[in-house]
């Protein structure tokens, strides 16, 4: 494969989701800076070999995979270790962690706040600036209000807005109230199906089951009596358990 002909076709996904052309000089500079005070000093030849190796891997797989800034940084760490530059790899890992802290401090988050945000609202290592761009649709006035803590969207918007452009099926509403199931199996299981679909998009549900008969009531089927409304609450609860939302499950 003539990899040089692919340089204009290679794009990297930034933390905010934007695509930029592959620039090997940035990888080369990052490696050299990590070597600045590492063992054995700066090795420009090795740095160039690592960059070329990464470039060729991207060329081989770029039709099948989307390469992000984070994935390329992982490649750099891996190559440094393979070349035996362990101290350099540690310095590079430390550099990444420090840069992450700088990005985090732009909104002065505590460790707890950062953990909640990164686990519940950040999408694929987009970073805080990328997160703001996504949920604000690039509106600078909205971003300014959020930075100043004067405005904040609801939870589902914070987690999901903009993801429809990335092929995700999501909802921007936190909670839904469903029609109560009628007192028959068809309606009960149809309700379970609607719950599952709503949960899969990220919504929570409120549900009234007052129409269902109590346990022991007569029914016209092989069971003779119904197991009661409470047993069907267990069914609906099981649906919420199966359809998880990053650990977030809710039925009222």
Please describe the topology of this protein.
Blueprint: E1 11-13, E2 19-21, H1 24-35, H2 44-61, H3 69-82, H4 86-105, H5 111-120, H6 127-136, H7 140-147, H8 155-160, E3 175-177, H9 185-200, E4 204-206, H10 229-242
Parallel strand pairs: 3-4
Antiparallel strand pairs: 1-2
Helix pairs in contact: 1-2, 1-4, 3-4, 9-10
Summarize it.
51% of the residues lie in helices and 5% in strands. It is mostly helical and 252 residues long. Strands 1-2 form a two-stranded antiparallel ribbon.
State the separation between the terminal residues, measured CA to CA: 58 Å
Strand order of the largest sheet: 1-2
Which class best fits the helix and strand makeup?
A: mainly alpha
Largest sheet: 2 strands, antiparallel
Unreliably modeled segments: 246-252
Number of helices: 10
Strand element count? 4
Q: What's the shape? A: elongated
The domain count comes to 3
The arrangement of helices and strands along the chain is EEHHHHHHHHEHEH
* Average pLDDT, all residues: 80
Helical coverage, percent range: 40-55%
Radius of gyration, CA atoms, in whole angstroms:
26 Å
Strand content: under 5%
